[in-house]
Structures are given as C-alpha cells and as structure tokens.
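Re: the multi-chain job from yesterday

Posting the exact lines I submitted so nobody has to dig through the queue logs.
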Amino acid sequence: MKKLKILLIGQPNVGKSSLLNALVGPKVVVSNYPGTTVEVTRAEKRSNDTKIEFVDTPGIYSISDRSEEEKVTEKALFEEKVDGAVIIADATSLERSLYMALQILEAEIPAVIALNFVEDAEKKGIKIDHEKLRSLLNVPVIPINPLTKMGIDELLDSLKIEGRKSFIVRYDDDIEKAIDEISPEAKGKLPKRFIALRTLEDDEDFYRYLRDEGKIKKVKDGLTDHPKVAEDISITRYGTASLIAEKVTQITPIEKKKRLQERIDDVLLHRTWGPIITGLSFLAIFGILLYLGNFMQAALMGWTETLLSSLGMVQDSILAVVLIQGLTGLAAGVSIALPYVFLFYLLIGSLEDVGLLSRFIVNAERFLKSMGLPGKAFIPLALGLGCTAPAIRSTRVLSTKKEQFRAASLFAFVPCSSRIAIIMGVVGFYGGIKLALSVFATLSVAGLIWALGVKKFGHIESEPLLLELPPYRKPLIKNVLAKSWIRMKDFVYIVIPLLAIGGMVYGILDMMEITGVIVRPFSPITSWLGLPDETAIPLTFGFLQKDLVGGMLVSVLGSEISSTLTSLQIYTFGVASSIGIPCIIALGMLIREFGFKRAIGLTMASIAYGLLFAGLAWRIISIF
Amino acid sequence: MAAELDILEIVKEDILRILGEGKKEEISIESIKSEINASDLFISKAVEELERGLIIIHHDSFISLTKKGEENAKDVLKKHLVIEDYFREKNKKDAHKIAHVLEHYVSKEVIDNIKKLSTFKGEGVPLREFEIDKEGVITDITFPDYGVFERIISMGILPGEKVRITSKIPNGVVVEIKNKKIAIDKNLARKIRVIDEKT
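And the result, structure tokens for all chains:
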C-alpha cells in the first residue's frame, strides 16, 4: 500500500478543522513537537490503495517563524518528510491566502489549493476563476465546501498526482543574483533556491543549511540597492499574490447595506456594551458550568458510592482503603472531566466557531493587558473556573513560555470548581452567603495585587493586538464535538490517573494514622491564621484532594462548625484554602508544562502568599 | 523558475520599458539582452511576440516601437515611475529597483492609489483618527520591525489598500480591509496613515 503524508496549511479561521473533519471524521491524534507548545493534529485516511496521513497545522498567515504557531508549521514542513500540502485558501480574500501559498511553492512542496468559502464569496459579489488560477500556478485548485462535502473526493484524488513544476515568484534582478550566489552554498535536502531566500529573509534557523554562513553577510553587503532586502522580498511576494488574485477574480459590486453581521459587531465591539456583554458571557459560562457541573457531579458521585458499597469490601485492610480511595479519586476525575472540562470546551468551541470568541478576546484584551497578559489569556482563565489542571495546559494558546507561566500563576486566584465548592459549601453554608462573597472578593483583590506586582517586576513585551475577526457563522455541531474531545483527551489520560493516585496516597497516609503528627509543625501557621490547630489537617490534605476539605473540617472540628469557629475564622479558613496552586494534580501539570523548579517555586510562592494574605486580611478586618 | 508564461510577460514589459525610456529610437537586441536578466531564449520569444504589432525589427538585430507599441510602453513606464516615485520617498536607493519588480505585479487599482500616495505623501491622519465607515486609502505605514511588518503585510494591510473603520474600540480599531475584519492595536494603528478615498 502506498503511503502519503499530507500537510494541511491555512490562515486562522479558514476552515481547516472542518476540512479535516470532512476528510477523515473525528478520529484524530493530537501531538506536539518538543520545545514547542502548539499542537499538531494527525489523522489517517484510506483512499483506494493509498494510506494518507493528514497533519493539521495551526493557523498562520505566513511561514516565517515569528510565532510559536509558525515554528510548529515550519517544523512540520521541513523536518518531517511530507509528500505534499493542501493549502486551504479563502475565496473571500484570495490574495492573502496566496501569500502563504507562494511560500509553500517556493519550498517546492507539491501543493493542492482547496478553495473554501466559495459561496460566501459569491454572496459578496466575488467570483474566482479556479481554472485560471490552476493554470497560472500550475497546481490543482479545487473549490470545496466541507459542510456539504463538495470537492472532498476530488481533493483526495488530486493528492496522488506527483511531479509538477509550479509557479515560483521572481524577484528583481539584484535579488535574483543574490539568490544565485547563495544557492551553491546550500546543503541538505531542501531546495537550494528556498534556502537562499530564507537566509536573505533573515531567518537565522536556515543558516545551518549553508556551507559557509559568512557568505550570506557578504552577499547582503553587496546588495547596496536593497538595504532592507527581507522587506523587499515580502513586498514582491505580496505584490505577486495580489496580481495573481486580481487576474482570477471578478468582482461585481453589490449594494452594501448594513448587514446583520455589522449590527451585531456594533453592539459587541461597543466601548461600553462590548466589555459588559463579554463579562456577562463569562459569568454565564461560569454559571452554566457550576450548575450543570454540580448536578452531574452529584449524580456521578452517588453512582460511584453505590458501586463501592456494593463491592462490600472490608474497610480495614490497607488494600481496600487504597482501592476505595483510588476509585473515589477516579470518580472525582470523571465527575470533573465530564461537566467542567468537556462542557467548557463545548461552550468555548461553539463560541469560537460562531465567531464570538474573537470579539470577546478583543474586549478582554483591554482588561488583561493592564495585568500584563494578552487577550488570548481569556480562554485559560475561564477554564480555570472549572478545573485548574487542564487550564494550566490550555495556557499553550499563548505564544511565549513567559506569558504562559504568568497566566498559570494566576490560577492561584482563579477558583476552580473544587475551591468554589469549599467557598460555597463551607464558608457559605456555615457563615452565610455574604461571607462567601467576601472570600471571592478577597481572592480577586489578592489576584489583582499579585498580577500587578508580577507585571511591575517582570515586564514582558506582549504581542500587540492584531486579530482577525471572522464573520459570524452557524457552528457545525460535529466539528465542535470533535474539537472538544481532542482538547479533553489530555485531561482524561493524564489528570484522571493522577487523581486516582492522589486518592490512594491519601488512603495510605490516613491508614497509617499520621494525620495527627501533621498538626504540630503547622501550629505557627494556624496561629498566624488565628485558627484552631486541627484545621491544619484539612488545609494540608486539601493539597492532595480539594474535594476532601469540607468533610475533613467536619471530622476534626465536629459538625457544629458555626459554634466552634467565629465567622471571621470561617472566612480566614476559606481564603487560606482557596489561594495557591490548589492541588497535587495542578502541581503535576505545572511540572509537565514548566519544569520542576518553576513549578515548585510557583506552588510554594503562591501558597505562602495565600497564607500571608489570609492572615493579613483577618487582622485588617478585625480592626473594624 | 517562474512559470514560462509569466517570465515572458515580464520580459515583454521590460523590453517595452527600455524602448520607451531610450533616447535612441532603435536599440540593438544585444544591448537588451545585456540589460535584462533572462535567458536569450525568452528574449527572442518575447521579441517574436512583440513583433505582432508593438515593435518593428530592423536588419534582424535592432528593434523600435510602433505607434501602438509606444502607447503600451508609455503605460509600462508610467506604472514604473509612479511606483518609483512613491518608494523614492521612503528610500532613495531602493526606489528604482523596487519599481522594477512591482511594476509587473501590482494591480491597476493599487497603482491608481499609489498615484494618490505620491500626491498626498506624508498626508492623511493616523488610522484611529479617521472617520468611522468612510472609505480611506492607506498612505503610509511606518513598520515597527520586520516581524510585525511581515505579519501586517500577510494580513493584507499595506499602502495603497482601501480601508474602512467599522468601529473604534478603547484598545484599538476594527477595520475592514479586503473583505476581512481585523482588530488592530492602538499603538500599531498610530503608525498607519490614511486619507479620504475621494481626495
């Protein structure tokens, strides 16, 4: 059987994931390259006697390795042996898609252009002569519609044709001469002309493909007419793209009335309404998660308990305790994964596909920028309200490690569902809703102070806002489901086992009755917090399993908590148990994403900060 | 190795431009070959095609323009000069060379807009101060650095393009350019200048 490896490349919002879905369905594998943070999705498809592996790369505007996304695509292009690329082009703005297409052709990668949004373009009065485009570029050009599967079979067939010589951009005489001078120095499998171009475009990663790196400087110095040769190259490439696009595009001007799309944006991007709606949506997501989450969690937990008791094991043997605690951890994992993680991604995925998410990001950027974070941090922060562990992983949407770590540090203050349960279930239950709300307020203040402090002491230049706002569309349920599943997979395979292990460890510690020993060394902390010594047990064990905190507090202090603790103490307990990297699973995720040192450092620092803050808070409050 | 068709078009335009610029009416094919960096084969083919109405060949080795050819040459030259003029503003040395390249590629509409640019060079207002919903043309972009530059270019934001602000947001502007909506940071928007399309 023949094997083909085909890359899917396109700009953001060009319909790449819908195309992949139409090609192979939701059976995909997510992977990422070492050293990078952006994911690559893979999927296989059998077509007659050929096995085609599709590699879906992140959406980018050009392949010049300026962002993490571009680096990943570049790696996929040049470090894997690919047989070809499908370039997904947007018929409503062809020239922009062609810019990257021309780069792919310069790399001499056999390409097929899949022309998406043909109907949308026609509605706007734009008609693309795809036959003419095919003859100009000498690559197959196939109009597609992933929703109706139009052109999908044709696209699959076109992948098997090999050996074409396609169009390549020509630069001015001086640049061409420079290319000719550098080309003989190129080594390795990549096309010599392409290496020459990339080195002229200041891509230092390509210097290693030159026999003599000094050559590039010499040639550049010789280009006295082009002091900025890299810019001249990209201007020419864009000019070429726009000329080709013009040759194949026919525009019939249509009466531009203010369409519904515009009206929605007038509201959503309004200077006051925009942020309000964004904030309300954020709260709505939060509410839906909390409500449905609690409901599903209760149902699942009840079901597991019945299962456990029906097993009827002797509670006293170590094995039984370990098993039971392990299963409880597993159940906790499932009951977080399903409602909080899957539901969250389902909501976010729908917002993304409808086109709302990018508007929310624009509105949130204003607020997040003041805390030193880019607008995209909206996504992980919202997810953090569900569960911290997958939220830490989702910081990968941010483009630099520094930004990711900074966003992750905020999870010490964004309460996850388990922490919300403590605040509502312990503080709210025993101290009243006002007290619970004041804990939430304290968390916000603590988080804001932290964020501003971090921003002040570690200034990082975040990318300026430059974001495309896709038109509003109907979401494709199948697509959203597939995406949510892909994003949740990690949680299922990494976090759930960790939760089960955490439960087992707790079971063993509990069995060995060392919980009492723990209290003494922590007494300075509990006295700083103005709490009884016994509260050290739920506070420390909360780190293994946040869901155990409420129950443990009752078991050490008795069920009459409202009489054993003052409301100020209940408040302090709530704050102290909610600030900080919440649990061992989140710590595990931090280690995985940022390395041992940084993870431990952040966890220690955030817990210390939380305890300090809680202690200060009750002292300040008690003055009044 | 551009597609053959395209090289031929470029060579043809180049020959017309050289003849149009030339002080002498007749120019030897040899001197054209030395000036254009393309294989002789393409040049002979281009000459052959141009002979159908645009140029006349004398004694097998000299060429000159016909009436119709002169007009075509003027067009090519005009395009060249417009672009050269625009880029001269930005960078004296670059101008001529960039014009050489762009004249073959840039569309008529962009050329028209570039003409406007050279008349209104340096004029216009920063993007964020431009009126909402009015059609404007980008006159100037002072690119911060190459990374941002290429990103901006590849998103279709460049001098000569038509642009319309759909809304102003506190952290920037939202514009429609080439049928796409893009949110641009206010610091970037400050570096983009726009004039009214009708001027």
